[in-house]
Amino acid sequence: MALMLIVILIGLLAHDLFSGKRENLTNVYEYQLDKFKNVDSGILCYKEKLQIKLQGTDFGGIAVDRADNIYIASANLVQQYNKNGDFIFSFKIQDTALSIAIHPSREILIGMRNYLERYSEKGALIQQWEQFNKAAYFTSIAADDSSVFVADAGNKIVHRFNKDGKRIMEIGKKDKDKGIPGFFIPSPYFDVLFDKSGQLWAINTGRHAFEAYTIDGELITRWERTSMSIDGFSGCCNPTHVAVLSDGSFVTSEKGIARVKIHNKNGDFSCLVAGPDEFAEGTVGLDLAVDSKDRIILLDPVKALVRIYTNLN
């Protein structure tokens, strides 16, 4: 008898769960993004001026040198274009690049998954560093005269190397006594960069935070902006890429809601460069650079384009 009652009860529950018109049911937990993709054109401050159609596949990074030449790293290939979009030259590399930077000496630094290569400005291989551990995932490079800083999304740390690849120290390891929260990097997007004053910044993407460090690893300041609205960053890990303008403002790109924005040096939203309607659905990996004229140089890996934006003012 008890078994029969249980069977009847299960049947009634199943009827309640699975009968009725499903189209009338609403998932209150659904992650709605559509309303955040609509942007006010009045907050636009840049316009697209030029596009460069790229060769290659699996685009990993973009950089600009002091002469405003543009470099794009991808699978087995590095390309260089001048500021007007004219092709200059390309050279082959033996692996898929995830990042690229131009050293003050004009050497080209290419980040593979767990090692770096140094090339001359003409594309001749100078040195290949030893491979780091298997967890490493080198997503970004910044260099000054004495050191090379590498954001490692796999090990969730910024490494400081000398130019020849000898590791000097780690930056950003969690330290409560020093107020360092530690990097929370849920996906392979993790930028490190110098601003125009020479200050080193690392982007703590899982915390939607910007952190400034001395080259010896002391935390100087940090700010974070978590918001679904345009004045902040949302999702697991944004912004994915960052560059800096001459006034110290940050240019940022995001995934989830693909867009490019400017935040001032204190973190407050300034204006919009490009909205979600300018990108293919699902676009990620919008790497950024800024040239001497404050043009924003954007790598669009889905459309295989370099897209150059100029200020409306």
In the CATH hierarchy, the architecture is 6 Propeller
Helix content: under 10%
Whole-number count of domains: 1
N-to-C CA distance: 82 Å
Unreliable parts: 1-31
The CATH superfamily appears as: TolB, C-terminal domain
Describe it for me?
- The chain has helices spanning about 1-20, 35; strands at about 45-55, 60-65, 70-80, 85-95, 100, 110, 115-120, 125-130, 140-145, 145-150, 155-160, 165-170, 190-195, 200-205, 210-215, 220-225, 240-245, 250-255, 260-265, 270-275, 290, 295-300, 305-310.
- Mean pLDDT is about 90; it is low at about 1-30.
- The chain is globular, with a radius of gyration of 23 Å.
- The chain has one domain (about 35-310): TolB, C-terminal domain (Neuraminidase), CATH 2.120.10.
- The chain has a 4-stranded antiparallel sheet with strand order 1-23-22-21, with no helix packed on it.
- The protein is about 5% helix and about 40% strand.
- It has about 325 residues and is mainly beta.
- The chain starts with a helix and ends with a strand.
Topology:
Layout: H1 2-18, H2 34-37, E1 46-53, E2 61-64, E3 70-81, E4 87-96, E5 99-102, E6 108-111, E7 116-119, E8 125-128, E9 138-143, E10 147-152, E11 157-162, E12 167-171, E13 192-194, E14 200-204, E15 209-213, E16 219-224, E17 241-244, E18 250-253, E19 260-263, E20 269-274, E21 288-290, E22 296-300, E23 305-311
Antiparallel strand pairs: 1-23, 2-3, 3-4, 5-6, 6-7, 7-8, 9-10, 10-11, 11-12, 13-14, 14-15, 15-16, 17-18, 18-19, 19-20, 21-22, 22-23
